[in-house]
């Protein structure tokens, strides 16, 4: 049995890559051609979070191999660069940030990076690239929302315009592995909107990167006011 994994989504890890394109063999030697200018690389279009959903759905479950039934709980934030090209889908693991008791597990970060790098990633419909942050929680027990009061308190404070209080409750709630995906997504949105209201653009950008598309738009709108 493995610990429950809920996908929401130390020193930097070396980038790890999966599904690299294979190179063609070199052509036989021939007459020397006149030098030509190197072709200009076509710009890489940005992939959207919606387009990346099937990739994350395919590779994130591989992290379950890095924990077992008695593993300590923790919140994990994955920093990934995902590229789609003619050779397939490439995932570079830029960092694996771990908070909570799981951070003390000596092998987890390296195991997580390797698991993501070796998990088969599906091809996407078009070329492009995106650098994203993706949150995941681990807990020996399935989420039961026993700490949902943190979400309610953050919601009430935000509705009353008490942004520092709303942010404090949201950030406290995000440390709780008992909350399921919908609750965590709401907390990310509330933390991001509160950070905008408080003028903390760096924190707002961080939560915007973690947010689901609808919540990402809400945070952007709050920062634009």
Largest sheet: spatial strand order: 1-4-2-3
Question: Number of helix segments?
Answer: 7
**Total domains, how many?**
2
Helical residues, percent: 25-40%
Strand content: 15-25%
General form: globular
The main β sheet shows up as: 4 strands, antiparallel
Reading the helices and strands in chain order gives EHEEHEHHHHH
- Residue-averaged pLDDT: 84
Low-confidence stretches: 9-43
The structure class reads: alpha+beta
How far apart are the termini? 48 Å
- Based on CA atoms alone, the radius of gyration comes out at 21 Å
Instruction: Give the strand tally.
Output: 4
Describe the fold and architecture:
- The structure is a single chain.
- With 225 residues, the protein is an alpha+beta fold.
- It has two domains: 4-20 and 46-139, no CATH class; 149-224.
- It is built from seven helices and four strands.
- Strands 1-4-2-3 form a four-stranded antiparallel sheet, with helices on both faces.
- A hairpin with a 2-residue loop joins strand 2 and strand 3 (88-99).
- Helix 3 packs antiparallel against helix 4 and helix 6 runs antiparallel to helix 7.
- Residues 9-43 have low confidence and may be disordered.
Helices, strands, pairings?
Elements: E1 4-7, H1 49-59, E2 74-85, E3 88-99, H2 108-118, E4 128-139, H3 149-159, H4 163-173, H5 181-197, H6 201-210, H7 213-224
Antiparallel strand pairs: 1-4, 2-3, 2-4
